[in-house]
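seq as requested:
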Amino acid sequence: MKTWMVLATLVAFTLPGHAQHAASASNMALLGHHDLQGRSAYQPVIHEQNGRWIAYVGHHGGRAVNPLTGREEDSGTSIVDVTDPRQPRYLAHIPGEPGQAETGGAQMVRVCSGKDLPKADKSKFYLLRTFGNLAHEVWDVTAPEKPSRIVVVVDKLKGTHKSWWECDSGIAYLVSGLPEWRTRRMTQVFDLSDPARPLLIRNFGLPGQQPGASGPVPTELHGPISTGPKGNRVYLGYGTNKDGIVQIVDRAKLLSGPREPTPENLLAPQVGRFNLSSMNGAHTTLPVLGIEMAEFAKDKGGNRRDFVVVVNESLVNECLEPRQMAFIVDVTDEKQPVGVATFNVPEASGNFCSRGGRFGSHSSNENQPPMYAGRTVFMAWFNAGVRAVDIRDPYHPREIGYYIPATTDRTDKRCVKAADGGERCKVAIQTNNLDVDDRGYIYIVDRANTGMHILELSQR
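struct tokens:
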């Protein structure tokens, strides 16, 4: 019997409002929920602040009433106290760029404590966020109920997205679109060790993306993940649902190399590269390093391996594109990465192609606390919710749980063109991005306005 059939235990949960689809779950339990004022959500980040646990959620563009102010505000950043995960409490909303969907909002958030940043005020907490596609900003969120902007790091951009901030060094890898570059998204490396005084280190991308280049333009950056000074590697994912590239970069060479973006200077920090096919992209490139392989324990050498979990992004509703999934890539030999496994959710387990909205992978957790590190990765799967995947044997990833939220009266419809030339619309959950806090709780947010669900893995 297939694993998913064994795990497919339906559990009926209901949330306030009409539920077209009830929740279903296996080995995961719902602890709490917040509707996030009905705003479409992208990235959640959870940070402990002086004994309080605060969720910062980046939103796509749109407008909604903020009950705290009584005003309609452009969607930006939600700040929610999740100290008690069963009773999340909304604290503040920071408006974002006017616009709809990907053209507005403030999708990306990162948070660092001043005590971790080398040159910051040790008593403060700092939020790095995008302002739509126009800019990157730093905010003081020491009192999360009263956020205040400190500085605009860079503005006048043509694109932003999923950035990364090293709290121990202050180095930030910002996904930006400089007007003179040939791509909408590339990397700007900034020193934000003193968040009030940003210092540009260099602009970086794939050869062919730089100003003055000719010929085809390589697929745009989606986002980086750094292992920091100790790991000395940055894993950059390019593309979302096609022509994906995983680039492995020597961090020290990236930071100290010459700034001029010549082809030679752009290639100098690269130590490895993995190309996906024309059918799959690289939304999230999560390094899972130093896994002890029990199967290889008696082999001479090679029993300790390094991997990257590469998660594609589904972009098109109702399966009108190639299936997006997760690829497990062995990067032990960085110069020659090799794909060793895939993880996929069987469509028939929920008739997901006909359920409405996107079906397929989108992202994984990036924080890896000790209870999950090297053991479990959580992946957002749009209308199939979140999937918990055992990766202790990366050659054979295995699903150990899932949670698909119920739709509510907040859940927005998703449409495709019908055969008669009109539209066919369905209401469906669109679990978008997620985070895991250091207590082990899982936070998933919904692209279709259903809010944030706080979950617990029943058996680890």
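Residues 1-19 have pLDDT under 50 and may be disordered.
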